[in-house]
Design brief:
The complex is a heterodimer of chains A (about 120) and B (about 120). Chain A is an all-beta fold and about 120 residues long. Chain A has strands spanning about 5, 10-15, 20, 25, 30-40, 45-50, 55-60, 65-70, 75-80, 85-95, 105, 110-115. In chain B, about 35% of the residues are buried. Classes of the chains: A mainly beta (about 120), B mainly beta (about 120).
């Protein structure tokens, strides 16, 4: 069955510290991979996406993610977090060559920033 | 105005009420979606309208009824809801098909409370 797992429900890091949010997926073939962010009271915004090519993907707001096929992972990283990064982060996967309606989301990781 | 706009932002209703949620997209997209976001659960796709064809999640109760009069507007009609329907309802749009899973653009959501 297709699934997306974000093993960390809630993470707290200090401002200026590095961040890594984990995402693992189970899929029949290599899917398209996404990270979305949801700030309080807002909808989801796309941070970055992996379709093909370089497995290290750069996104907005200084985020990057690395696709590791052997580990079925797509972890999100940021070298130095800012207080404004406090939000909920969602990993998502979707089939190649198909509609966005097929995208499935993980349960999310809530990120808190310690001053 | 740009992006995806949802109204109202907050809605409190009794179980016997009838209300509607409205979504409007200003992106020229050809697909629109309703998602349900409950605490600690993955986003649940409720309905999709793509090129004015409706696709629905069979697990969505009939007390939720979508309407898509054109490619820019989407409604979710609510009647005789249950307290467990309290959640954040998100509207999204995308440009499908486009040779692959395209990214979703989300509105800020309607926070629904059913008393």
């Amino acid at each position: 069955a297709q699934s997306v797992t974000q093993p960390d429900i809630h993470i707290t890091v200090s401002e200026g510290a590095s961040l890594e949010l984990r995402c693992n997926y189970s899929y029949g073939a290599t899917p398209y991979l996404f990270w979305y962010v949801q700030s309080p009271g807002q909808g989801l915004q796309l941070l970055l996406k992996y379709f093909s090519g370089d497995t290290l993907v750069q996104g907005i707001k200084g985020f990057e993610a690395e696709f590791k096929r052997s580990q079925s992972s797509f972890n999100l990283r940021k070298p130095s977090v800012h207080w404004s990064d406090a939000a909920e982060y969602f990993c998502a996967v979707g089939p190649r060559g198909s509609s966005a309606s097929k995208i499935i989301f993980g349960s999310g990781t809530r990120l808190s920033i310690r001053p | 105005e740009t992006g995806v706009t949802q109204t109202p932002r907050h809605l409190v209703m009794g179980m016997t009420n009838k209300k509607s949620l409205k979504c409007e997209q200003h992106l020229g997209h050809n697909a629109m979606y309703w998602y349900k976001q409950s605490a600690k659960k993955p986003l649940e796709l409720m309905f999709v309208y793509s090129l004015e064809e409706r696709v629905e999640n069979n697990s969505v109760p009939s007390r939720f009824s979508p309407e898509c009069p054109n490619s820019s507007h989407l409604f979710l009609h609510l009647h005789t809801l249950q307290p467990e329907d309290s959640a954040l309802y998100l509207c999204a749009s995308s440009q499908d098909p486009a040779g692959g899973s395209e990214k979703l653009f989300f509105g800020s959501g309607t926070q629904l409370s059913v008393l």
